[in-house]
Design a protein that fits this description.
The chain has 668 residues and is mainly alpha-helical. The protein is built from 31 helices and eight strands.
Length: 668
């Protein structure tokens, strides 16, 4: 077995080559074929993602347990089911274990496929089983393993690289899918702008603003990594439909299903799309028949997802389905917006409260758990300045302004047509309808951009939808319909290249800054914790603690946990709230009673959760103060237990980060 040593340093040479290839693609855009540019976009982006991920964690040289620890919070939870599935004796047994999970919310038995939208893990797990089965049958090696020397006197660990390694296979498939997404962006930009150069502009803008457009390179297992590429394809198909091409309706429905199945948040995104389409419809840019067709597709997609997710209640209580039903009634019966108030009847509480907290002073424990996280905060000024420096924001403002001007002129033209003779009016409409179809798609994209912009200002996480759409809209600088007044193609291309050159000043700096991120993942305290659990606790032991740590415990030890990072189910929120009384100011006796109620054997205490806060009012004791005013002013229980866990708990393990407290058996 070979010996390798972990490295440091960046790969600046790769970044220079990547930028050079992108520039070459721009120069050759009018002479190359669409498939060639498509493949280049795919290959470059996939290589970029792979190298960023490798640079950040040195993933290829991590041991199995280190790779698992690298999947923190929700990532570890999702990956644990992939691990369960591929380690099961058969496909059906693996599916049974996932659908009858007794380790994630002990002592409950839950259908994890339904609860956590685990179709990506089932699909990838099936591919992995098929792949390794075929390779083993033909005796073809699928991975290379070696010992890796570690610093600080740590023992060497075995590390494996290759598609036969489960974690390597999982991550590679995610990056492959997102590489295909970049190809879709190139095709989308080309189609929207009517120019292959527009596709290149989209791709380059995405590279220049990559850090604001995706986080797949840091968090591959998150649901958006599997879902968002299908949203890009869905919007491309919707654009085709808005151009009078309705043959894409079935494909649109399939994309809706593939977008909705992996990610609960997807229905909220589709809600904004329905709202934008209704705006186009009520402004007269979308015919009644086409609006009905789109609603039918969305309703059918929803029904399929509802069945495939075993009648998941959260789907029925979403704004998305209520808006679809109200929209159908509006189009078919009353032709007004009054029935849209039905969407307020079955609200999704956590989304409604989150928005309410942004617009008012409302706050409670669960809302603060969201809003105190950086991704749910208001968008940062630094992010907006970044958009300005890469010109993506100014360009989009100009484009939306020009589209607004076009819309105004068309409205005036149709007002004039209303006073023409029947013959002249017929000829006018024959000429204007194709123009209206093109303007309709631009109006829709402008409205969708505004919707994402407003939401991104309120919730920074939405910038992952805003930035890619701005990059896509930037392709319209190549549109002859919007910028034909510049002059012939040569002048237009010179203008586009000038804009790209200015964009590249900050864009290339952003690109190289990302390439310069170099790390070497190590989490020795957690590794010690997991090894202690494996060696010193029974396989049926039950743990409670912070949500991120519980995901790692479940993944790497196979022990049951009472709470986890999937903080969306109402019942699970209340369980987590009981667990987090450990970080309140409540008496130790009451907290112990809560843990006994959950039937936990051990609690993993972390001082960092007791002391840290992202901003004033966001430490765990301060979050508890909102609802537990009776105990305000007292020392947090976690502070007291970090000094001495007696008499209510017994310390079983301790290092500089973690402290494992045992709940006495006689008390239980």
């Amino acid at each position: 077995m070979a010996m390798k040593t972990r490295r440091s340093g960046d790969q600046a040479q790769f970044s220079r080559k990547c930028v050079s290839l992108c520039v070459f693609q721009v120069i050759q855009s009018d002479r190359q074929t669409l498939p060639l540019a498509d493949v280049m976009s795919n290959t470059l982006f996939r290589a970029h993602l792979t190298n960023l991920f490798e640079n950040d964690k040195h993933f290829s040289h991590l041991s199995s347990i280190e790779k698992e620890m690298a999947f923190r919070t929700e990532m570890g939870l999702y990956y644990s089911y992939f691990k369960i599935f591929i380690n099961a004796p058969s496909f059906l047994h693996g599916l049974h274990l996932i659908m009858n999970d007794r380790f994630s919310e002990y002592p409950l038995v839950i259908n994890a496929l339904k609860r956590f939208n685990l179709y990506p893990e089932v699909f990838l797990g099936s591919l992995f089983r098929i792949y390794t089965g075929i390779m083993d049958f033909f005796g073809i090696p699928t991975k290379a393993c070696w010992n890796v020397n570690r610093a600080d006197g740590l023992n060497p660990v075995e590390s494996c690289e290759g598609m036969g390694d489960a974690a390597y296979f999982y991550v590679s498939c995610v990056f492959l899918l997102n590489g295909v997404m970049m190809s879709l962006f190139y095709i989308y930009g080309t189609y929207l702008s009517g120019s292959r150069l527009g596709g290149v502009v989209t791709v380059l803008c995405l590279f220049f603003n990559h850090g604001e457009s995706t986080r797949v390179m840091w968090t591959p297992p998150l649901r958006e990594s599997f879902s968002y590429p299908f949203f890009v394809l869905q919007m491309l198909l919707l654009t085709r439909i808005l151009r009078y091409i309705q043959r894409s309706l079935v494909a649109l429905g399939a994309c809706n299903v593939l977008f909705l199945l992996p990610w609960p948040f997807a229905q909220f995104v589709l809600l904004t799309q329905i709202a934008c389409l209704f705006a186009c419809y009520f402004m007269g840019y979308l015919s009644t028949s086409k609006m009905k067709s789109l609603l039918v597709v969305h309703l059918a997609s929803f029904a399929i997802c509802f069945v495939m997710l075993f009648g998941k209640l959260e789907l029925l209580t979403s704004f998305y389905i209520s808006s679809l039903v109200a929209g159908w009634v509006s189009v078919n019966v009353c032709m007004t917006l009054t029935s849209l108030c039905v969407s307020l009847y079955f609200p999704q509480a956590h989304i409604g409260n989150l928005i309410r907290s942004k617009l008012t002073n409302y706050k409670d424990f669960h809302t603060l758990m969201y809003t105190c996280a950086a991704e749910f905060d208001f968008i940062e000024l630094e992010t907006l300045l970044g958009y300005v420096k890469t010109l993506i924001l100014p360009v989009n403002i100009v484009i939306v302004a020009i589209i607004s001007g076009k819309v105004r002129h068309i409205i005036l033209d149709f007002d004039i047509a209303a006073h023409l003779s029947p013959f002249d009016a017929h000829n006018f409409h024959c000429v204007s309808l194709p123009l209206c179809a093109c303007v309709c798609q631009m109006v829709y994209h402008s409205l969708q951009l505004v919707a994402f912009a407003v939401l991104a200002i309120l919730v920074m996480r939405i910038k992952l939808f805003l930035a890619p759409l701005m990059c896509l809209m930037a392709s319209l600088i190549c549109s002859r319909q919007l910028f034909g007044w510049i002059g012939e193609h040569f002048k237009s291309h010179i203008t586009v290249f000038g804009i790209l050159s200015i964009m590249a000043i900050q864009g290339v700096a952003n690109f190289q800054s990302q390439r310069g991120i170099v790390g070497d993942f190590s989490n020795l305290p957690q590794e010690q914790l997991l090894e202690w659990i494996n060696a010193n606790t029974m396989p049926n032991a039950v743990f409670a603690g912070s949500m991120p740590t519980m995901a790692s415990v479940k993944l790497s030890t196979g022990r049951a946990v009472v709470n986890h990072p999937h903080y969306e189910d109402t019942w699970q929120k209340e369980r987590t709230k009981l667990v987090y009384t450990m970080y309140s100011r409540k008496p130790a006796k009451e907290v112990k009673r809560n843990l006994m109620q959950l039937q936990a054997d051990y609690f993993i205490l972390e001082d960092s959760w007791c002391n840290r806060r992202s901003r004033p009012g966001c430490s765990m004791p301060e979050i508890w103060d909102v609802e537990d005013q009776e105990n305000r002013g007292k020392l947090p229980l976690c502070t007291l237990l970090s000094i001495d866990s007696r008499p209510h708990f017994t310390t079983m393990f301790e290092n500089k980060v973690y402290k494992v407290l045992k709940i006495p058996k006689d008390a239980k």
